[in-house]
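Here we describe the complex-level prediction in full. Unlike the single-chain runs in Section 2.1, the three entities below were treated as one system.
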Amino acid sequence: MEEIREIQKKYCSRAMFTAIFGGLFLILADHVSIGKGLILGTIFSSINFVLMGETLPKRLLQNQRNKAVMFSLGSIFVRYLILALPLLLAIKMEQFNLISVICGIFMVQLMILGEQFAKFFLKLRGKTV
Amino acid sequence: MAIDGADIIKAAAFLGAGLSMGLGAIGPGVGEGMAAAKACEAIGKNPKEAGLLTRTMLVGQAVSESTGIYSLVIALLLLFVV
Amino acid sequence: MSNDFQTWVNVAAYIGGGAAMGLGAIGAAIGEGYTAAYANSAISRSPNLSGEIFKSMLVGQAVAESASIFALVIAMVLLFTEFSSQSFLMIFVPLSAGLSIGFGAIGSGVGSGFPAGAACMGISRQPAMSAKLTTNMLIGSAVCQTPAIFALVTSFILLFTDFSSSPVSPTWAAILGAGLASGLGAIGSGLGGGLVAGASCDGIARQPKSATTVTNVMLLGQAVTQTTAIYGLLISFILMFKTFAPTDSIAAAMALLGAGLSIGIGAIGPGIGEGFTAQSAVSSIAKNQKATAEITRVMLVGQAVSESTGIYALVISLVLIFVI
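The structure predicted for the assembly as a whole is:
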């Protein structure tokens, strides 16, 4: 399971790093609610990713099929409830900008895709030049 | 709201035209895709026969396309004749 | 009377939110189940690679889930925002926004399960290719998410546009039609794009040398598969931004609803069909790289013929909007 921990550490720390620096920059530039929203969304995005990683092996190594199905449904339900929290906060409170919370929720996904696309295009360029 | 019979008939005809073309496009779309898929596989196995296989694929797809054209005709009839 | 409106607007928002989350979760659940089944057999095949397989499955799942998180976002906005009820139109806006993202997330959720499953199987077969397989899988499933993004864009535009100055009578049907056009239209493209990406992961695992060609043909095939979803988005935009003359007749309203249904449902078939074609083309190219040029040509010709039915649906939609 060390591989999973490693990959979680890598993407979560990159996401948090980007969010905190982006958020600080925005807060200093007087867009306080946008910066706070970005950081809030990213925290929950990382929590979701970590929980997903923790439940994944457990889900696969269940012996009984019914148990596995119930376990994965429960995992999805709990994780979505957790993701709904920042959205609810952003809708109800003026302190957090809704759009930036939504961007923050996808921060881990953006980090994963960004890395892979960078790899892909660098390779393409290396081939043709 | 002045709702009379002619208006309701027109309304049903327009909705029917949309549904006719929409539902009618599912079958030919999937079917032609499958025909082309098999042609690609066959060319992968036997690239020399590419011309013959492409021709056969196009004939098969044209037959499959006819059902899509029927629903197009029905949709146009519903739009402009009813 | 205004009190009455408010009740109905709230009811519509709850129904829309429920539809968004309910429909949106279906796709993700099916996709995750598919991935898990393949990951399971991959691990039982080579238990010593389980760490590598879990790693690839985790990132695949994180990306695959984004379509249903889009649906979650829209559902939360619908459930917890106060919608002002200036006019009768506001009843249809939340309903349509919910249906759009709900239907739109199904295809992408199921579709991005295919590459993730194939990549897990592939790693158990060719452990040396795991980095390349993961890259290919992620690019493939990112393209699968685009139809869901189209549906998300439509939902957001519906929610944040002020329709209060538009005439009620034909505009309610235009709003509902816009949501259905990009929502239903996204199902086929999402599924089709997933089939292509799955086949390409499988092909790379079987023939590692063909990796670059296979990835390029996969992207080409997926691009053609997305076109029908773009038609749906185009019709939604026209329906949302065109101003319609006020009218009392039901026929004018039904024409706009029919336009949305026509391109929405009509885009499903060609999307899946083009996905089948590109799937076979990619796996044949992996087996026989020498025939790449012929197979790509036949794939494009076959996809073009399959596309024609989607174009008929587009034509009927445009006629319903502009001629009638």
